[in-house]
């Protein structure tokens, strides 16, 4: 197993290099640069000063050289300094990523619980009215653009009924400690979590449903019934476990999503997450930040892929990685 | 725990064989689809949305993009059924024109996704070896890079290419397509790999058929169902993605409307509170279109994949 | 037959509701299984033999319905039992073995767990006792190194071993009846011989009744005490094994026996039954075999034959055996 | 004797097993390990064996549907595995194959007429105008009807599909056909029909068959010669009557004795082999059958028995035979 | 099946109704105060007519709340804390490196400079007083003897020198450009990367509290350039080595200055918490010891900032968009003061003077006349921004005499006539041609931008009517800037924020940053007037020069002048002391120390 993981890691190096090249090209070839983005319209700033700054930031070097410098530093563990935040990229990411993480992690848990429940019952009651209602609800939930759903919820629950706060992550001016702080954050999380869960629940529920329907037809489920086991034992112990196998990949692929932040939702709910920061960094051409972070997510995605296969091997005794 | 009487697998019977009608897998899928009232309803709704968007404007008393700033923000009335917007334009007409764009974006983006995704998946799955490695690694890389940054910068890069501004909408479709083909290509590839294991593919080799024939006559028709299903769902995804792009200011250019653009231009609490006619119509239009497409996609999945059915 | 029947199928009708229409998978099947007896239900695909067995277990798919008839097991009408009573029956009083040993075991659970499950469920063993017993069972079905195998996963075992595990599960609660649905079809000849041997041995040791479903007349000849031949969802012939093989009375049974090549016979040409196995959709109201029957008579295409019994209890549903039908 | 149509010498087909950090080949599944035989024109050779014996791989390697590891396959004196791709394609119509699974061997989305006719068009053996006629001819010859041309596979029963598979091979006017378990998935009453059809066609068209099967009763019916395979090697090879009347290899004897015979009066003393077929990835040393052989001795564990001619072309690979 | 069909439709219907219902209901709920306040009802009831009637005068200045008692309970409970809502600061809290206006607000709380801008835009003494030598080239600063940083250490000339040196460091990568101050020896210091030169010739420490700076040339803006913020060297420059600014950047989030507040806590993207500086060194108006102990800057968004005021989560919102909707809402709430002031800047359409078509002043004037700027501005601001005809803000002392200015009110015929005169004749296809060349203009627009959303449809319609083939493309801001830098555009909408001084060098001088990079407009007369204005230190004389300049620019229209809009701060009426204390040059942070909380 260890050997398998090491091999997969080694194999992923070309992919990471490829990703880094594409990331680098995508961002550097995008029109404009940090100087133009920041000072393009500053009528006081002279062209000379702009060129000086480009020189200082190394933006006027040829692309291959810039790439070599960037990657060279990254290999040494240095992701560079964010132009916008004037501090190391890793610090910036570290500051914001965990805020995104708690949001996404909560959504992940809710989404999987709900999808499992919905999927199981739909699978057992395939084509019943219940199944169709659930299907319809799921489709409705996933059929609005995220910003619209977010604003709608904000308007209903924060502006009209004032059940939830108007965004942000904690109450300002009321210092909460310990449990009170956690409760405060949870209260602030409610709306973004609902938004993201509604949007993401659709796909997963369908997968769950399909997977369960597939498994429930298998011979070993019939065997389990033939053994006279209770229905819930058959469903949870025999069917669900197997239905989850193909979903492991899905789960592992969602892991990078835990760290990448939900750009639009964070923006609408003024959530201090990494998504908002990246969006800003893209628009401001904060190359070290946006390239470093994108590379980080890419690596996570690739690791997620490996993790998916490893988990698969752990969960499914038929798959043994050597 | 489905137990089927075995011979059901072969519904062929002498008496039946003599009947004249050709029962192609497509036709039987279509028959199954027709039985799905859910999907049929969705289909009718979708047709309605198409008619509304493409034929509707001919029945509108208002002219395209007629601006009358002093008539801004009129609530619904007999004159303007859904009121007017910020520039005094008739919302009904805007809704129709926006529908054209949104539906077109969905269809065209999906077309590109299908084109790239299927080509890559087919080639990778069929030839295997280093072609497979390179293509799939590339897909991995594309997959690993977050979508939104790609979209933003792709859009910016492409807008540098002196693209006629009026046709920038096609650029958006193209970009959406270019960054979303990976899922489909993986799907197609895995399908091809499993088809290659089937004896009929072994047979094509034994018969000495050319690669072209193997791909186009044998593999492609068998992946068409998943292409149709994922394509259908892709249309819905593209419509939603376009609206999110509009929210970020990367979608269509005013005065060209899209439903997403209409929605996002009413994205403040005041419009939400005071001028529901600005956001409810495009919101509902997106909602029912996307739901319809998803329901149809779901229905197609059931119809085209009889394994999922009883 | 002095002994009381353990299982009695009485005019069983099972239907499937499919897109293509209503499939009468089983229509009017009646026969008995006595304690300790081996009854082979033989027939080709679509004959309804598996559906008959699954009707007894009440493990039919959602779209299936038993529309008529009774199945008496040990004095109770199985079809009238409540779900929890039915559960007590399954695995406990009736064990079942399926055709595909590859897919019939849950791939993510060890075989030990899968053997233990019914023991814990029905016989209230503790986990530890159940495990001990599971090891005994594994040994009993002839697998060496039972202590290791108990913790193995199904995929680590060969097809033959898996089928032995299935037998161990079926036997675990010492049932009165074992249903074996094509238990050796998927296995190699040499393994098939092992499994049949094992089944025979266990059956005689445990004195359990065996309902063996198969399409292989060779297996029938080797295993059966009593044979039930099914065709098109109905029983066309039944009788003691010697009777049926020596003196097949239904043209279908006769054809089957003749069509099968037999080692050592070296026929110049095989006998064939013309036409196709009928689809269970749109079965005719007359004899289902009439379209393929070499002896077909006008009456065969008019009416489904009654069942005729001869002195030995050999039953056949064919107009040829009506009084004076054949000269 | 007739002219030689097919000559297989020292055929080996190995499938690599990869493992470790760099996916190095750590071993091979020796699916076919050094087999040789000659098939004269017009005769039928059956290859019989259980799963894992390599019989299917033999068939596929002969047609170069699988790459050969060593040895050669000569069809009418031409080494199949040395041909260029286009040369091979030209030769293909002469050597055809009928597959085991009537469900997966036909493209579900292609009319059977098209499926039968496409190779004709591809090889220029028919024009667009006369292809239909030729296909219909093949259909009729295979016991179907001309009207079946426009049907799809799902409208046929298993037996009819197998007839379509035969028609597809037949229409190319082959000289040699490999029949890979053509009846094992069929009902008894249909099996007989197909076997008779194959026998008839052989006579009408002067075909040469390589018949692959696990069912000795079927093999006995159709073959002229029989080769028994065990774990990738031929253990016994003889004329049909010779083999069935005087089986010399303990494995052949066991196979014959294990086959159930539909005669309840026949009470045989059966040879029941112990244990399972070993894995071809790790075959036993010495005689491959020694682990299950009731007569095995020390020598069998060490020494590999060679095929020996026991007279009259009856070859057997056993130290104690004769 | 039928049932599910029915349900599908009913659900959609219910949903639609629910959404519609919400929309209506919120009309009431969003103005919960209306029934307690009679006066506030009228704007709400009449807003339809009002919104459609063009406003002659905007309700400028400081408007008091009508119902001050309606302050929400949440706000009332905060007896010693002020919460100010604004866009998030980035956390770069050193004057050298900050880049956003919101970081700058933080800086004004914590730091003080040698001089500062007064309410009218002039530079007045703060930490220091100064005298200028007769040749106008040497500035001697006398630091207030009492001045000390919040850690109690006194402000010294060494701190000032250090503050200059960081700006002049060869590796300085902040936005400020100290080279324009032309300090003697500064260029040499900056050019020396090896660290050999450690002093700048033109910066001389005279004694502990006195420092003199000598510049190369007389310039009206020198004082503005030199009156920088002073940072403690003992804190920021402990181990300062020329060329290594990293240690300083590490302190970005932990500022230490001499200002009235100290930064207590910074939670990125959420809040900045301040406390009154216990060691604040003076207490004379307008610089007083803070009266309210705690101030918090809270990160808010445009979507919800008004609602936050409404619920009492904030006491003050910086930068609420000025439009009729927002004004109505604020008035309806009743307990909010608003300070609405003209923005010190304006919106314009940049023209690319490399395009020969646009080099013709008649064409440019035609583009002015031919565009219904009033409608576009109205649509964007709901009538709450002024259309302008000169590139100068009305709040500046440099704003020209309005008499004699050309008024470019929308006049299609006049525009057509001007184009005819310029030689652009109408063709049969509805477009104008000159020498076979079609009159084509290409507009690059940044997106998202509400002005473009309103402007583009109108411009398209107007210019089409004039026979101009007008195409517009909307793109990301950077892409637009990039196109403009490359000269691949004809027109682009932009806005400019002006400094305290009316000098328009950057925009119109042929060497000016923005002009050189984007417009490439060159007119010797303009250059001459701008240079003249900069050399003149006397304000009255400068005013005359600029009067001439702006009249000339009014006629030349090198760029299309669009509008001057308003800025608005909205303030809970529980805060007292902002009235009259905020001007376009003088932001709320100046007034904050003097503000008190009205207790309930």
From TrEMBL, chain B:
Gene3D superfamilies the record matches: MetI-like
Keywords: Cell membrane, Membrane, Transmembrane, Transmembrane helix, Transport
UniProt cross-references to SUPFAM superfamilies, sorted A to Z: MetI-like
Compartments it resides in: Cell membrane
Gene Ontology CC terms, in alphabetical order: plasma membrane
Region (Disordered): 1-20
Superkingdom to which the source organism belongs: Bacteria
Main location: membrane
Residue ranges of the TM segments: 38-59, 101-126, 138-157, 169-188, 219-241, 277-300
Alphabetical list of PANTHER family matching this protein: D,D-DIPEPTIDE TRANSPORT SYSTEM PERMEASE PROTEIN DDPC-RELATED, OLIGOPEPTIDE TRANSPORT SYSTEM PERMEASE PROTEIN APPC
Family from the record: Belongs to the binding-protein-dependent transport system permease family.
Name of the protein: Oligopeptide transport system permease protein OppC
Taxonomic lineage of the native organism: Bacteria, Bacillati, Bacillota, Bacilli, Bacillales
Automatic annotation (TrEMBL), chain C:
Molecular function terms from GO: ATP binding; ATP hydrolysis activity
Pfam families noted in UniProt: ABC_tran, oligo_HPY
Protein topology in the membrane: Peripheral membrane protein
A GO CC term assigned to this protein in UniProt: plasma membrane
Sorted UniProt keywords: ATP-binding, Cell membrane, Membrane, Nucleotide-binding, Transport
Compartments it resides in: Cell membrane
Family: Belongs to the ABC transporter superfamily.
Name assigned to this protein: Oligopeptide transport ATP-binding protein OppD
Organism of derivation: Candidatus Carbonibacillus altaicus
Lineage: Bacteria, Bacillati, Bacillota, Bacilli, Bacillales
From TrEMBL, chain D:
Domain ABC transporter: residue ranges: 17-256
Superkingdom assignment: Bacteria
Alphabetical list of SMART domains matching this protein: AAA
Keywords, ordered alphabetically: ATP-binding, Nucleotide-binding, Transport
Keyword Nucleotide-binding annotated: yes
Keyword ATP-binding among record annotations: yes
One term of GO molecular function: ATP binding
Pfam families to which the protein is assigned, alphabetical: ABC_tran, oligo_HPY
One GO-annotated biological process of the protein: transmembrane transport
Family designation: Belongs to the ABC transporter superfamily.
NCBIfam families: oligo_HPY, PRK11308.1
Protein name: Oligopeptide transport ATP-binding protein OppF
From TrEMBL, chain E:
Signal among keywords: yes
Organism phylogeny: Bacteria, Bacillati, Bacillota, Bacilli, Bacillales
Listed name of the protein: Oligopeptide ABC transporter, periplasmic oligopeptide-binding protein OppA
Keywords: Signal
Polar residues composition bias: residue spans: 25-50
Signal peptide range in chain numbering: 1-20
InterPro entries: Peptide/Ni-bd, SBP_5, SBP_5_dom
GO-annotated molecular function: peptide transmembrane transporter activity
Gene Ontology annotations of biological process type: peptide transport
Domain of life: Bacteria
């Amino acid at each position: 197993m260890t050997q398998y993981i090491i091999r997969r890691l080694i194999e992923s190096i070309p992919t990471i290099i490829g990703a880094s090249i594409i990331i680098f090209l995508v961002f550097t070839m995008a029109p404009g640069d940090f100087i133009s983005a920041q000072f393009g319209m500053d009528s006081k700033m002279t062209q000379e000063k702009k060129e000086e700054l480009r020189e200082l930031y190394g933006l006027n070097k040829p692309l291959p050289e810039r790439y070599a410098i960037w990657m060279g530093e990254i290999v040494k563990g240095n992701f560079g300094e964010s132009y916008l935040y004037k501090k190391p990229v890793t610090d910036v990411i570290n500051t914001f990523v965990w805020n995104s993480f708690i949001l996404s992690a909560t959504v992940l848990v809710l989404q999987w619980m709900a999808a499992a429940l919905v999927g199981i019952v739909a699978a057992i009651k395939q084509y019943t009215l219940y199944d169709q209602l659930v299907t319809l609800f799921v489709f409705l939930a996933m059929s609005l653009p995220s910003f619209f759903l977010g604003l709608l919820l904000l308007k209903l629950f924060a502006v009209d009924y004032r059940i939830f706060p108007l965004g942000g992550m904690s109450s300002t001016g009321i210092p909460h400690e310990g449990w009170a702080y956690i409760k405060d954050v949870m209260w602030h999380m409610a709306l973004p979590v609902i938004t993201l869960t509604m949007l993401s629940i659709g796909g997963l529920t369908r997968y769950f449903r399909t997977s369960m329907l597939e498994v429930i037809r298998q011979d070993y489920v019939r065997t389990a019934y033939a053994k006279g086991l209770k229905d819930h034992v058959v469903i949870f112990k025999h069917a669900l476990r197997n239905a989850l196998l193909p979903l492991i990949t899905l789960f592992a692929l969602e892991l990078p999503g835990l760290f990448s932040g939900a750009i639009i939702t964070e923006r609408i709910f003024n959530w201090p997450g990494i998504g908002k920061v990246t969006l800003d960094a893209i628009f401001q051409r904060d190359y070290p930040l946006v390239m470093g972070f994108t590379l980080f997510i890419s690596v996570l995605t690739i690791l997620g892929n490996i993790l998916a296969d490893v988990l698969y091997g752990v969960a499914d005794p038929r798959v043994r990685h050597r | 725990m489905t137990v089927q009487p075995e011979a059901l697998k072969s519904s062929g019977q002498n008496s039946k064989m003599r009947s004249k009608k050709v029962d192609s897998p497509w036709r039987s899928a279509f028959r199954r689809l027709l039985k799905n009232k859910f999907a049929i309803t969705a289909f009718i709704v979708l047709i309605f949305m198409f008619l509304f968007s493409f034929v509707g404007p001919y029945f509108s008393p208002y002219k395209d993009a007629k601006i009358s700033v002093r008539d801004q923000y009129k609530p619904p009335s007999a004159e303007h059924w859904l009121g007017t917007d910020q520039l005094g334009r008739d919302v009904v007409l805007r809704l129709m024109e926006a529908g054209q764009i949104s539906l077109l974006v969905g269809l065209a983006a999906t077309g590109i996704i299908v084109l790239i995704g299927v080509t890559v998946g087919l080639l990778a799955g069929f030839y295997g070896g280093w072609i497979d490695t390179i293509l799939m690694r590339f897909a991995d890389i594309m997959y690993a890079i977050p979508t939104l940054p790609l979209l933003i910068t792709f859009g910016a890069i492409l807008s540098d290419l002196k693209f006629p501004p009026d046709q920038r909408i096609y650029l958006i479709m193209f970009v959406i397509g270019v960054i979303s083909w990976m899922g489909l290509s993986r799907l197609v590839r895995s399908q091809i790999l499993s088809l290659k294991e089937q004896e009929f593919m072994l047979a094509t080799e034994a018969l000495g058929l050319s690669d072209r024939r193997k791909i186009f006559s044998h593999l492609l028709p068998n992946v068409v169902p998943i292409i149709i299903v994922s394509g259908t769902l892709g249309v819905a995804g593209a419509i939603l993605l376009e609206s999110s792009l509009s929210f970020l200011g990367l979608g269509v250019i005013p005065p060209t409307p899209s439903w997403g653009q209409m929605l996002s231009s009413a994205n403040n609490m005041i419009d939400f509170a005071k001028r529901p006619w600005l956001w409810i119509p495009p919101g509902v239009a997106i909602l029912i279109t996307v739901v319809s497409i998803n329901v149809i996609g779901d229905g197609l999945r059931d119809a085209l994949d009889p394994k999922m059915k009883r | 037959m002095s002994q009381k029947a353990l299982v009695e199928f009485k005019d069983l009708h099972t239907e499937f509701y499919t897109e293509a229409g209503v499939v009468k998978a089983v229509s009017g099947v009646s026969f008995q299984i006595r304690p300790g007896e081996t009854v082979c239900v033989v027939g080709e695909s679509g004959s309804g033999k598996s559906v008959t067995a699954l009707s007894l277990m009440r493990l039919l798919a959602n779209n299936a319905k038993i529309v008529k008839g009774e199945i008496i097991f040990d004095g109770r009408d199985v079809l009238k039992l409540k779900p929890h009573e039915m559960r007590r029956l399954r695995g406990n009083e009736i064990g079942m073995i399926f055709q595909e040993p590859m897919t019939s075991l849950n791939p993510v659970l060890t075989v030990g767990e899968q053997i233990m499950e019914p023991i814990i469920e029905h016989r209230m063993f503790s986990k530890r006792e159940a495990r001990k017993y599971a090891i005994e069972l594994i040994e009993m079905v002839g697998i060496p190194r039972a202590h290791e195998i108990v913790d193995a996963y199904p995929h680590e075992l060969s097809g033959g071993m898996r089928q032995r595990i299935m037998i161990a599960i079926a036997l675990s609660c010492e049932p009165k009846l074992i249903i074996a649905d094509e238990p050796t079809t998927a296995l190699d000849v040499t393994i098939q011989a092992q499994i049949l041997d094992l089944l025979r041995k266990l059956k005689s040791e445990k004195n359990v009744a065996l309902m063996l479903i198969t399409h292989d007349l060779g297996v029938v000849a080797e295993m059966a005490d009593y044979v039930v031949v099914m065709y098109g969802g109905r029983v066309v012939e039944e009788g003691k094994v010697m009777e049926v093989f020596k003196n097949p009375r239904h043209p279908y049974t006769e054809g089957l026996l003749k069509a099968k090549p037999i080692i050592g016979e070296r026929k110049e040409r095989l006998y064939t039954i013309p036409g196709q196995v009928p689809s269970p959709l749109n079965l005719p109201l007359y004899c289902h075999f009439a379209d393929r029957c070499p002896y077909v008579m006008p009456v065969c295409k008019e009416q489904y034959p009654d069942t005729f019994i001869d002195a030995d209890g050999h039953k056949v549903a064919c107009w040829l055996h009506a009084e004076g039908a054949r000269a | 004797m007739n002219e030689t149509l097919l000559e297989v010498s020292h055929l080996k087909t190995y499938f690599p097993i990869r493992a470790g950090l760099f996916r190095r080949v750590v071993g091979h599944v020796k699916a076919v390990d050094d087999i040789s035989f000659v098939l004269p024109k017009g005769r039928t050779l059956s290859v019989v064996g259980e799963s894992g014996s390599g019989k299917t791989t033999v068939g596929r390697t002969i047609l170069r549907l699988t790459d050969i590891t060593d040895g050669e396959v000569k069809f009418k004196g031409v080494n199949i595995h040395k041909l260029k791709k286009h040369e091979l394609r030209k030769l293909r119509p002469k050597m055809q194959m009928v597959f085991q699974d009537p469900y997966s061997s036909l493209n579900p989305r292609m009319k059977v007429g098209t499926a039968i006719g496409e190779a004709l068009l591809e090889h220029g053996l028919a024009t667009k105008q006369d292809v239909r006629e030729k296909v219909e001819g093949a259909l009729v010859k295979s016991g179907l009807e001309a009207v079946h041309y426009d049907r799809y596979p799902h409208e046929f029963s298993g037996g009819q599909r197998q007839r379509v598979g035969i028609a597809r091979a037949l229409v190319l006017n082959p000289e040699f056909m490999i029949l890979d378990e053509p009846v094992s998935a069929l009902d008894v009453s249909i099996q007989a029909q197909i076997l008779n059809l194959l026998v008839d066609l052989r006579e009408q068209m002067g075909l040469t068959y390589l018949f692959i099967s696990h069912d000795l009763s079927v093999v006995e019916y159709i073959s002229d010669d029989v080769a028994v395979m065990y774990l990738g090697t031929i253990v016994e090879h003889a004329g049909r009557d010779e083999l069935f009347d005087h089986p010399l290899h303990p494995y052949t004897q066991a196979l014959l004795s294990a086959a159930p015979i539909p005669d309840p009066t026949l009470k045989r003393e059966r040879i029941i082999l112990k244990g399972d077929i070993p894995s071809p990835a790790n075959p036993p040393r010495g005689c491959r059958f020694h682990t299950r052989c009731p007569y095995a001795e020390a020598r069998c564990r060490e020494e590999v028995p060679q095929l020996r001619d026991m007279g009259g072309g009856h070859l057997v690979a056993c130290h104690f035979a004769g | 099946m039928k049932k599910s069909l029915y349900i599908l439709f009913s659900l959609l219907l219910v949903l639609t109704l629910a959404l519609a219902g919400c929309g209506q209901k919120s009309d009431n709920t969003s103005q919960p105060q209306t029934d307690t306040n009679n006066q506030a009802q009228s704007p709400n009831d009449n807003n339809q007519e009002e919104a459609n009637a063009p406003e002659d005068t905007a309700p400028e200045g400081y408007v008091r709340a009508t119902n001050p008692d309606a302050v929400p309970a949440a706000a009332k409970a905060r007896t010693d804390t002020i919460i100010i809502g604004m866009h998030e600061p980035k956390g770069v809290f050193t004057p050298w490196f900050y880049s956003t206006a919101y970081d700058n607000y933080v800086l004004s709380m914590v730091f003080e400079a040698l001089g500062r801008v007064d309410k009218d835009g002039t530079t007045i003494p703060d930490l220091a007083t100064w005298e200028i030598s007769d040749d106008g080239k040497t500035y001697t600063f006398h630091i207030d003897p009492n001045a000390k940083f919040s850690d109690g250490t006194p402000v010294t000339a060494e701190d000032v020198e250090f503050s200059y040196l960081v700006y002049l460091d060869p590796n300085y990568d902040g936005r400020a450009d100290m080279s324009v101050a032309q300090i003697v020896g500064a260029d040499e210091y900056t050019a020396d990367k090896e660290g050999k030169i450690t002093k700048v010739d033109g910066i001389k420490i005279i004694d502990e509290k006195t420092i003199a700076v000598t510049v190369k040339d007389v310039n009206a803006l020198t004082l503005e350039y030199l009156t920088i913020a002073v940072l403690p060297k003992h804190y920021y420059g402990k181990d300062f080595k020329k060329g290594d600014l990293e240690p300083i950047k590490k302190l970005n989030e932990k500022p230490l200055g001499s200002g009235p507040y100290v930064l207590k806590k910074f939670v990125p993207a959420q809040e900045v918490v301040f406390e009154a500086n216990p060691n604040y060194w003076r207490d004379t108006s307008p610089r007083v010891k803070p009266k309210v102990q705690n101030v918090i800057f809270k990160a808010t968004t445009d979507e919800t900032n008004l609602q936050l005021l409404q619920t009492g989560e904030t006491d003050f919102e910086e930068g609420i968009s000025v439009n009729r909707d927002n004004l109505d809402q604020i008035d309806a709430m009743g307990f909010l003061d608003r300070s609405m002031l003209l923005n010190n800047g304006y919106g314009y359409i940049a023209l690319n003077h490399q395009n020969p078509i646009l080099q013709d002043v008649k064409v440019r004037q035609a583009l002015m006349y031919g565009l219904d700027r009033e409608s576009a501005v109205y649509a964007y601001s709901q009538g709450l921004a002024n259309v302008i005809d000169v590139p100068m803000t009305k709040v500046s002392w440099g704003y020209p005499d309005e008499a004699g200015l050309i008024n470019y009110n929308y006049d299609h015929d006049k525009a057509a006539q001007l184009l005819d005169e310029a030689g652009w004749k109408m063709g049969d296809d509805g477009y104008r041609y000159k020498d076979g060349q079609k009159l084509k203009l290409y507009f690059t627009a940044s997106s998202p931008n509400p002005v473009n959303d309103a402007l583009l449809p109108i411009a398209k319609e107007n210019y089409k009517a004039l026979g101009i083939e007008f195409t517009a493309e909307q793109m990301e801001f950077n892409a637009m800037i990039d196109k403009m830098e490359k000269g691949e555009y004809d027109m682009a909408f932009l806005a400019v924020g002006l400094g305290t001084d009316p000098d328009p060098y950057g925009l119109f001088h042929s060497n000016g940053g923005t002009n050189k990079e984007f417009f490439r407009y060159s007119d010797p007369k303009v250059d001459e007037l701008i240079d003249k204005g900069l050399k003149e230190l006397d304000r009255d004389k400068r005013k005359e020069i600029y009067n001439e300049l702006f009249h000339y620019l009014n006629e030349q229209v090198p760029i299309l002048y669009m509008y001057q809009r308003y800025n608005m701060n909205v303030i809970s009426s529980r805060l007292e002391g902002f009235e009259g204390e905020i001007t376009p040059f003088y932001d709320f942070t100046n007034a904050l120390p003097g503000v008190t909380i009205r207790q309930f």
